[in-house]
Amino acid sequence: MLNLRTLVSLLVGATVATASTAQHVPHIYCTTHDHERIAALNDNDPVKLAQIAAAEAELEAFTEQFAAVADLRKGGGAYVIPVVFHIIHNNGPENISNEQVIDAVRVLNNDFNRLNDDWDDVRPEFLGIVADVGVTFKLAQKDPNGDCTNGITRTISPLTNAGDQDMKDLIQWPRNKYLNIWVAASADGAAGYTYTPGSVANQPTLDGIVLLHDYTGSIGTSQPSHSRTLTHEVGHWINLRHVWGPTNEPGLDDNCNETDNVSDTPPTEGWTSCNLNGNTCTAPLDNVENYMEYSYCSKMFTAGQKTRMIAALNSNTAQRNQLWTPANLISTGVDVPGELCAAVFTSNVQVVCAGDPVAFTDMSFNNVSAWDWAFPGAVPTVSTDTNPTVVYSTPGMYDVTLTAGDGNSTVSNTEGGYILVLPATGSSVPVVEGFENVVAIPGNEWTVYNPNSDEAFELTTAAAHSGSKSTRLRNYTSQATNIDELHSGTYDMSNATDITISWRYSFARRNSDNDDLLRLYVSNDCGATWNMRRQLRGATDLPTVPDQNSQFIPTNQSQWEWEEVSNILTSYHVADFRFKFWFQSDGGNNIYLDDINITSGPVGINELSGGSHDMLVVPDPVVDAADLMFTMDKGGPVEIDVLDALGRVVAHVHSGNLAVGDQRITLPVTALGAGLYFARVQGNGTARAVRFAVR
Question: Is 233 a catalytic residue?
């Protein structure tokens, strides 16, 4: 029976580690022991762990046999591995450029083919065993369906901040055809991690490499000192251990008794600094500059490490021997130069105000050398720049066309209605949006952000607080952590005395564990930046009805609640004011929004002008009854009215003389529907008003 010590030494497992060329730079090392990570992923099942140990032992036996008979002198990129980079991002810096990915592949190929500029700077004692491993990595040109690709996928998900197996499960191509590399904002607490072939022999979904975006390549969000991280992780992926042995902990005395199963790497405790004279065990000198060290001055693999990696590539363990076959190189398209096959582009924004610039980025592939852009309605209307910037001066919806060429052929792509241009001076307020005149969402009035391309905010007649329409997000079928947004158009708040936004909402959880979030954000630059002003939580104030197991549809007004936001600073008194509703799912039920009111102070009222400023309505918000309280500085004739959010008189309260002093007037609120109102007092040449809400 295998004891724990034996199992740990067999399970090289999830090596969470990095290596690079620079010193004196803060770096990230390992966070977990290999056996702990792999055991957790196997539910600590002793049968599964024994199977993993057996697969590791079988690969070790194969490696010994292979090394005894193989001729490994060829080098020079004899083995070609198709690679796909999965960029998992949430629209942050982790959404690295294609150029940064290409640079990462460049560094990787230099290191595995002894083309790195610094290989001959290693200590003279090791110069004779610096290996040309002879493995070349190429970005896939065909996806698993045989369609054109550039070997880079992009998936929007908050799981980028986890970097764990759940994130990897979002997208994975067959491991017998591609080396999968995920780039994210987190690598589960490390700079990068992977699993050796034996530890994932029977679990394809665990296979592949996860990297922090700022440890990917040497440019963009990364830096040269981090650029050997991928080299280190690929070493693990092709069955290399750390030079001190099968743990993630360098610097331990016990490491001198461990082994990496490579004869020409001297025993070492392991290094986290670049001490080129280091000697921690019995050998005259440690191989501190090895890619499988933590020294961050890595420059080399040894000949013995090469033998071990080539053996793994010839083994059927984890299907490594299927990757570099001629049939697979044809299937993945890496056997021939990249073929021009797709005109693709992105832009920094798709909704913009008139007069604001839009920057376009070409993402076409492959071997593109010419670009012809068409921008109807913009200046300029055409461009041959790789990444042009244009300006739209007139509100509307506009197509964008890109024709990409390689000198011999062209491909073209037109994105209809790609750019929505909003008025730089928005609609006048107040506005009462009940969605009764809205034709569709998304549209010119309301747009959506739906990064997962599943359920989005939509116009519905299934339920409404007033009228027959509202907007709904069918959260019942959404995946937990999904984010969706509903964006407004522009509103002219340049003459506002204050800004108030109120709305009706109806929401149900599915169970008491749901903590879905609804937020209101505002923008004073047409949506270029946003600031949160209110949050409602599923665990506290968002539910309007008891938990519902089936699809929730509100059936009466009592299942709706009202919310108001007025903490909006004067810096938002701009002509292109916008707001948005942001929703994050936590497995709850559907949510509905209706009766959205936007005001900048009551129409035609010089609010709180003249006299004292001690007007108030009690209670506020109003449920059944309310009184208006104010002070008369001098007696005389007074008109008191109740106005709706549009400034229309909806109730006459008083007409006649009032004496000097404090006043308390009952307001006729029982006939008022829920919403935002103003109580206005006019007399003695002045008018003043106070806002209140009816629930």
Answer: yes
